[in-house]
Input
Amino acid sequence: MTESTTIRWEQDRTGLVTLVLDDPDQSANTMNAAFRASLAAVTDRLEAEKDTIRGIILTSAKKTFFAGGDLRDLIRVTPETAQELFDGGLEIKRNLRRIETLGKPVVAALNGAALGGGYELALACHHRVALDAPGSKIGCPEVTLGLLPGGGGVVRTVRLLGIADALLKVLLQGTQYSPRKALENGLIDDVAATPEELLAKARAFVDANPESRQPWDRPGHRIPGGTPANPKFAANLPAFPATLRKQTGGAPYPAPRAILAAAVEGSQVDFETAQVIEARYFVELAAGQTSKNMIQAFFFDLQAVNSGANRPKGVEPRQVRRVAVLGAGMMGAGIAYSCARAGIDVVLKDVSPEAAAKGKDYSGKLCAKAVSRGRTTQEKADALLARITPTADPADLAGCDAVIEAVFEDTALKHKVFQEIEQVVAPDALLCSNTSTLPITALAEGVERQEDFIGLHFFSPVDKMPLVEIIKGERTGDEALARAFDLVRQIRKTPIVVNDSRGFFTSRVIGHFINEGVAMVGEGIEPASVEQAAAQCGYPAKVLSLMDELTLTLPQKIRRESRRAVEEAGGTWPGHPAEAVIDRMVDEFGRPGRSGGVGFYEYGEDGGRGALWPGLREHFTRAGSEIPFEDMQERMLFSEALDTVRLLEEGVLTSVADANIGSLFGIGFPGWTGGVLQYINGYDGGLPGFVARARELAERYGDRFTPPALLVAKAERGETFTDAR
Ligand code: NAI
Output
């Protein structure tokens, strides 16, 4: 019998066995090789000593109950090693099945988060009690990494909750529930207030159920809500593909489809066969490119970015206590809310007390909504609002240790507002601007302490968007960069760090996506197909509707300014075919976008978006100008990816993880790609395949698709885009 190294066996005199998950080599328990061997050993022993055992409690000595599959292993799976993964997974499933059918009561005492593999272990127990601790989450988030729960999670949730609830509540969205919500939705059976109560409740179940069995092992068990064999259920089946389409927008996400198939197919066969079906789909997803992209981005890159791989070392962490927000418009109001929510006192300044108060009202509305939805208490909401002081008087900014400016996008105005307050705030206050395009180095010229000046680019709506782009100006010091980083983490957002340049990373790259879509309209392509192409790529917003949201006059103004700057410096403006379309829309047809009531779309009285403007077809669309759908999609994706490589070449971007996370969290680059540079890594044929396709696009659609030297060199050297840290 092999020994168990990661599962500790504790047995009391009454024959109650407590299996304690406690991997000695890791901070969290995962489904690694050591766990697999330990589970086999423990299962053998349980069977061998069955007669002396009264019941089993499964719990953990770590902060989380069990973390799930080891992503370091999963990201390395290839079609060649897939069989190994299949066999290993099946072994774990069979051992869990042996424990589940031992004839003894088995209870999961969830002392902390039980997500993915953790919840799957709990599902193999007859009873699930969770400690109601803050931050303790329960569910199957595998879908968000392009995977499915391959440890029996599909098979058991379907048998526990029924196909529809298993899919909609657990599997397809990957919802992470608090213990109380997990209880309400039937994922667990009980909650406990303290660790002592948790174990007491687990023991009580064992005492009361000496011969416990899973519902699906009792005679006559039927899957709740029925299976496709039942005509009543079958009538509802067509709704699932529609749900899938809604979730993925037709974009290439293989996991939801595989989950649906594993659930439905597995519901029509016996438990063992269903486990094999689940294993097959799991391995197919794990060996595929999408799960690798998503694991790389949403796990490894995100961790690198949030843990401060880019934060200057050796600068003591600092917390902001009182922040001045200048400008209480859309962005300032949102920034004030996010800071107050994180416990920071906010002085919100605008030109008049009324304008400042209006900015604070925005927080009032968000708080009221959060209270009405049960997401916060009235008390907490009141405390949040009490932290925001609206004002028009610069003197009220005394003592602020950070400033975030969000007035109109105008260099002279920004200089003026900083001059007004620089001597009033704390003498070492961090000075930040939320400009979305203006170079930080030039803005810094408006303040005395240029080393303390930095860009802090938030995204709209601030309360929902997780990203902040930190922009280092030429004279920004390391201390300011570290403090800006700490401030972003303090308000629980994700910081990426870039060097100064017009439009930085995010605004510049999203501009290419929009320009490409607009250019296609100018070429005579049907505007509805352009929108469809963007949606089916997996972009959250269609391209022309996004242009309308941002307003067409904005890129026009920025372009004219940038062009002047480039030409004054003796350069040539590269130009883009989208420019002529935007100029005609604004100057000839008077359609500036949503804020002006008309744009590429029509808008109702209430501002709601209507249909595409029929004039587009009349003035732009030409028969015979259609191009392959794949070209339309790749023109958008490539335009962003190629410019990101140029940004690396220019030194504006210095980290691959920042590029990937920034593109996913800031500007809606499709999630299945794993981010804008991972998209290149994972492209069919790798970097050489990407270069060849870029050249093809350049030939057909223009020089802007010519692959930059850095990309070509990396492709030739057989490299990919990664951070060598
Ligand atoms: P907004 O027009 O909604 O708000 C600007 C506010 O600044 C107004 O309330 C105005 O009264 C106030 N203001 C003007 N002069 C002032 C002064 N001397 N002192 C104090 N307040 C003054 O503009 P929005 O959209 O909030 O943008 C603000 C900044 O944020 C701009 O630099 C913009 O480029 C940037 N930004 C905007 C994003 C967006 O999606 N709208 C995204 C990221 C950055």
User: Anything to note?
Assistant: The chain is about 50% helix and 10% strand. The pocket of NAI is lined by residues 326-332, 349-351, 355, 406-409, 413, 417, 434-436, 457-460 (CB under 6 Å). The radius of gyration is 28 Å. The longest strand covers residues 16-21.
